[in-house]
Amino acid sequence: MRALVISGGGSKGAFAGGITQYLLEEEKQSYDLFLGTSTGSLLVSHLALNKIETLKESYTQVNQSSIFSSNPFLVVNRKGEERIKINHMNVLMNFIRGSKTFGESHNLRKLIEQQISLKDFHALQKSEKEVVVCVSNLTVNSVEFKKLKDCDYSDFLDWVWISCNYVPFMSLVTKNNCEYADGGLGCVIPIEKAISMGATHVDAILLNTEFQQTNRVHSRNPFNTLGSIFGFISDRIESQNMHIGKLVAQDNNTSIRMFYTPKILTTNSLIFNKEQMKEWWQQGWEYARDKALNSS
Questions:
Q1: What are the residue ranges in the chain where pLDDT is below 50?
Q2: β partners of residue 203
Q3: How far apart, in whole angstroms, are the C-alpha atoms of residue 235 and residue 289?
Q4: Would you say the pTM of this structure is higher than 0.90?
């Protein structure tokens, strides 16, 4: 049984899209399991349906307004470098409305419904492939994995959306009397879950460099501080996920092929720049091609 596993990474999901396009179209890989966290959860349904072009169009056309219904950020371009500033007015209005977070991502929920149709959902339910998304249940302090075949249409779209909600910058969702947030808060890359579901080979895409290269600049505002904190936490969780995944793979004689980003793509993956994401998609395809050539 073969599994494709894709980590979280916000806008860097475009790079993963390029890798998967190469794997499916050039290597003709076939997978039984598709597991995703955060941005990975946005990819896996289309990949299971082999709808690469639809996925590519979606990932290379989004912008900030496609994601945020209330954007807590202002993106400022200074000397060719994009920097994040606080959108004080939006944050203040969010607090006045009683929101629990700095921003809201209801536009993303609408976009997901546009991209994953009821027809697509039924096709996946009838197929032999399994699609799984990871979410974090903050109420009971646990990571949960939601299988498409265990859900109805609306619930599955909710779980995909929830998996992507990078709290406190995006929506905190109450569902089934529990508060849920981004799956990456608990599991950045679910390799261990894929193996527990019976995978004997895993192709895993981790949207980070293989070796730590980040040297974060000093924070300029509270958002920068929060971003640095969550970046640090995410890196630690990612490291643990990889360590545990490799140990479980050894115990179960499961082979793993890892794909990393060859360089740091961005220091803020909540910036959604269409032109940049187009470049990342192409770079992902070329990276997968070069990796295949070097291993042959």
A1: none
A2: 4, 257
A3: 27
A4: yes
